[in-house]
Amino acid sequence: MIGVYTNTTPVDAYRGAGRPEASYLIERMMETAARQLKVDPAELRKKNFITAFPYQTPVIMAYDIGDFHASIDAAMKAIDYAGFPARKAKAKASGKLRGIGVSCYIEACGIAPSKAVGSLGAGVGLWESAEIRVNPVGTIEVLTGSHSHGQGHETTFCQIIAERLGVPISQVSIVHGDTDKVQFGMGTYGSRSLAVGGTAIVKAMEKVEAKAKKIAAHALEASESDIVIENGEFKVTGTDKSIALPMVALAAYTAHNLPDGMEPGLKETAFYDPTNFTFPAGAYICELEVDPGTGKTSFVNFVAADDFGRLINPMIVEGQVHGGLAQGIGQALLEGAVYDDTGQLVTASFMDYTMPRADDLPSFQLSHTTTLCPGNPLGVKGCGEAGAIGASAAVINAITDAIGNNKLEMPATPDRVWHAIHG
Amino acid sequence: MSTVKLTVNGKAVSVDVEDRTLLVHLLRENLNLTGTHVGCDTSQCGACVVHVDGRAVKSCTMLAGQAAGSNVTTIEGLAKGDELHPMQAAFRDNHGLQCGYCTPGMIMSAVDIVHRHGGKLDEETVRHELEGNICRCTGYHNIVKAVLDAAGRMKVAQAAE
């Protein structure tokens, strides 16, 4: 091993971490192949989609489920793919080069089965933990090792609990990001929070509910198997007998009338180690125009059709996709660490490093197709990085389509695009 | 050291600061108004935007002394008690924020944009005007939606007054 000092900027995993690079390479090759074969790029992808599941890949992962045709069909419909040649001709008449670019991605999230990552050399297990505390007044605290820095765990995780128990979301609170309180956790990365962290919450809830049902059955003098949970109440099915969650919680802590041998309290912990990765997939199509005089790219439309499995909170999911797309587009068009001939970083502040601004981006047209993930009880796959994974290839495929030159490096700045057009 | 007297969120304040102190540091460190953020320190990102005499200003670019005698409004002064400003409400309703770091500056800039353009805002104008505020989370999609939504709400609120 050789260690060297360098004056270049340190690098680390970035949104998508490895999948954007892989996806970009594959989707640029698909586009290039389609052009060389003179086959419609969308058709070539369709011919090569995997349609039978599970599908064992040569690299550990076994794709569990997906419907890639549904995604690309949704994207093609949203952008009116069939109408593109007419739009291109019209743009040409006004001196603009119009292009369309497809990018289909699949990625691996739900990181990760500890055994699988152990075989790849990881030094830790990648499970997640959850603790559910039902307080004596019936409020619920959820401690998760998957912390949030704006992904909205406080909302999505609460929704899971509120939906299971039929209680108002305001009755549930999330504790995260505090190692004084949350003893164990592996964190938030790899679009794993809901698939792994959320499932740990479900597993802990199953334990809480099982104990609460025993307490309720004892109080109602009914059989445990007859107890159902509805609207925040434990009901004896087929009767009007019921006991509200706060009363069950209070009974758990007063411990005056618990089933023989039961421990007081209503607090459970679960560790969840996934059995497989999850595989979000989707199709992105970008339509844009290039000004041949300046090399400047302007978006006409950007559509994204993703399959994230079940959506717990579609608004939050869409927000994640918007942000991911912006990062993927930023990489395609604007962002790059540039050094001059003497090794001086000349993109050291936002004055020079082009973070995407509002006027660099279009509004996005999102849609979702759904195949439920069979690997976890929530049926979720993960949505945090998809946009950044699929967007860059769609943009570069569209620009190279517009200018009729397949050689173009990212970031495709106006200078680079102009030279790709004019040599 | 100098004594700077100004009005912040409707309250008269008098603060002794070093002459080099920037307005954002007076707000955050002397007045503990930490809703105004410092993002880049180079006047690029807009996380530090506040209103000085009704105009949006990047408070990391203004000396505290330059704000003497001015009326400064920060994100903390925008709501009327428990009632959010229409721009704040629109950001919440449209999911116009994720991590929240850029949000105070975004909102202060957006209020200024609506004031300057009145009801004549369209998406292109909003995107152009937000050029000085950077967001890494939202892709701006829902921020733009929120500003357009708020422009409508502010017009209605103005008509009602």
Automatic annotation (TrEMBL), chain B:
Keywords for this protein: 2Fe-2S, Iron, Iron-sulfur, Metal-binding, Oxidoreductase
Pfam families: Fer2, Fer2_2
CDD domains from the UniProt entry: fer2
Molecular function as annotated in GO: 2 iron, 2 sulfur cluster binding; metal ion binding; oxidoreductase activity
InterPro entries: 2Fe-2S-bd, 2Fe-2S-bd_dom_sf, 2Fe-2S_ferredoxin-like_sf, 2Fe-2S_ferredoxin-type, Beta-grasp_dom_sf, Diverse_Oxidoreductases
PROSITE patterns membership: 2FE2S_FER_2
Keyword Oxidoreductase: yes
PANTHER family membership: OXIDOREDUCTASE WITH IRON-SULFUR SUBUNIT
Protein's name according to its UniProt entry: Carbon-monoxide dehydrogenase small subunit
